[in-house]
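Progress note, project year one: complex with pyridoxal-5'-phosphate.
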Amino acid sequence: MTTLAVQPPRYPVEQVPESSLHAVFRAAQRWASLHHREPIALHIGEPAYDIPPAAVEAMSRALRAGSCSYTSAEGMPQLREALVAKLAGQRIDADVDRVFVTPGSCQGLMAIGAAVHTPGAGWLIPQVHWPIYRQQGMLNGYRVTGYPLGPGYRLDVAAIARAATPDTRVIVVNSPANPTGAIADAETLRDLLALARERDWLVVADEAYEDFAYDAPHVSLAAFEADVDPYDRRVFSAFTFSKSYAMTGCRVGYVVAPNDMYAGLLRKVQEGAIIAPPTPSQIGALAALDAQDAVRANVAMVRRSRDEVMPGLVAAGIIDAPPAGGWYALLNIASSGLAAEAFAARLLAERGVAVAPAAAFALPGDPSTEHVIRISMAGDRAQLAAGVDAIVQACHEWGADRTPERLS
Ligand SMILES: Cc1ncc(COP(=O)(O)O)c(C=O)c1O
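Model obtained:
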């Protein structure tokens, strides 16, 4: 009798893994319905701050006025013009014809992957990564390979050069990074771009957390191509309104193509994939761009949360150093004597704290995340502090409890 396990998949998508983060969500929901209250949610990336009031106002006004028709596939010209000005401030040489407003940067990243795919091409992603990169690479038909990260999860260009395969066509770079919080410095990015040039790779720079840089400045990879002839450029950049402006559910982001040729490819993907990005969200995004005070306050809020909880975690040996940027931190809970999945399950069951085992952010079989969990620092500060206390205590108590058998 043939079993399902040995049958070749009928559709390539059957091979694409589901995001294992969903299992964490489901476990947290089960806990909530059992206990009639929400667990402390350190597993999700939803911010404690709100969308800027000016964005809400602009969207409400637009909807009341009936401004809800399609825009072009690239998005509203006024918004794209404002984005070109914003990008110029970070030394990215954009142009309205090369900026695409997208339903979240997630869709923008997917569209880039689809636009530049060639048969047999490889998609190179960080060994520890936002899991959507892997799904998108596979969904777009690439061969997905991971590149190892250096100490502190920082980019290591020599390791990238070794990890690449002859078919590598696209490398994905994420700084500040989810889930690691690492920020790539200018010299490393310059070296990476030189390698990409030498090997003729395209580069996708995911800058979702561009504003959340605490200990090091954020540098945009595309800034290094500002003086390069557009037809020699190779960096695509992806940005979002989700993080800096708390507009996660508005689904609005944008991507920048390096030149008109790639913009032409992207346009076709967007025509076929979305028709147009959502109009009310674009109107909200345009208003949000003027709310830079709100962005500064939002960044300060996450930074303060980070600064409040990190000393205790460093002192307990659960993290080596605070993450330099982003919303997340990876914690090593090996001192509890448990693997990350068991730790997360027990922490939820016994202490009502939901965290994500870091295997969800690694390629299959990567042993480096066996004792690592991810927490979000963007949520409510009191909940974060309570959750972190529970993690430190659990490591201490469960570690002290362990018998030689449990350790084996
Ligand atoms: C690294 C990274 N890139 C991109 C995104 C996508 O954000 P959105 O699609 O909401 O713009 C996320 C969201 O969690 C992220 O963590």
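The longest helix spans residues 292-315.
The longest strand covers residues 168-174.
No further modelling is planned for this target in the current period.
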